[in-house]
Amino acid sequence: MTRRAARPATPSRRGLTRFLRRPVLRRWLAAVLAATTVGGSLHLVLGRPQPGEVPAVVAVRTLPVGATLTARDTQLRHVPPDVLPEGHLAEPPAEGSSLAVPLQAGEVLTAADLRTSSLLAGLDDVVAVYLPVADAAVAGATLAGDRIDVHSPVDGSTVASEALVLRAGAGEEPGLWVAVDERTASELAAARGADPLGAALLVAVRAGDTGG
Questions:
Q1: CATH class given for the domain over 54-114
Q2: pLDDT digit of tens for each residue in the chain (212 aa)?
Q3: Cβ neighbourhood burial of 3 (10 Å; 0-12, 13-18, 19+)
């Protein structure tokens, strides 16, 4: 009896997704996307959105650390979500934002690629303040553009009202970057320092404007 050769094991979808998000694969994706940014039929075929693809901001040229971004430096492309790095940008960053890392042509931009000061582009008389939060679920459910109230972990008093969320991170040390005036920034620092246990500040997300 002839035995059939066993098929080689194929990676699970979850494992493939984890593999594709490694830095080396991010560079591979950049090379593929860079090829589609040039003119010609290749761009016309691959540039069309396919079912299930999502928008992502891509560098159209090699950009050095500290580069100030303009509308000519990036392009919105549609990419399969499984190959996108975490924190990818779905909308172009504010003009005048600057890079914290170098980017290759075709590389997908992420929030971590932008300098923190770039988050304040277009905002006047505010500073960016990092707030650690006690619960990763809170950081994970909070998005850039949300408005939050911040309360003291000691007595629950309001330390900051309607602070604008600039960036949210829900990793091992969850936290939020928020825009506040300098006085509020000092009050936030004092509120956290007043707690001998160093507990994270408490965050309440405000309801968005419903236009009613």
A1: alpha beta
A2: 545 444 444 444 444 444 444 555 555 555 555 554 444 333 333 456 677 888 889 999 999 998 988 889 999 888 888 888 877 888 888 777 889 889 988 898 988 888 877 778 778 899 988 888 777 788 888 888 899 999 887 788 899 999 999 888 766 778 888 999 999 999 888 887 766 555 567 888 887 654 44
A3: exposed
- What residues does each domain of the chain span? 54-114, 117-206
| Chain Cα centroid distance, residue 25 | 18
Structure tokens given for 89: 């940008």
DSSP string covering 173-187: S-EEEEEE-HHHHHH
Q: What is the pTM of this model?
A: 0.57
Q: How far apart are CA 200 and CA 192, in angstroms?
A: 7
Count how many Cα atoms sit within 13 Å of the Cα of residue 54 in the half-sphere of its side chain.
Answer: 12
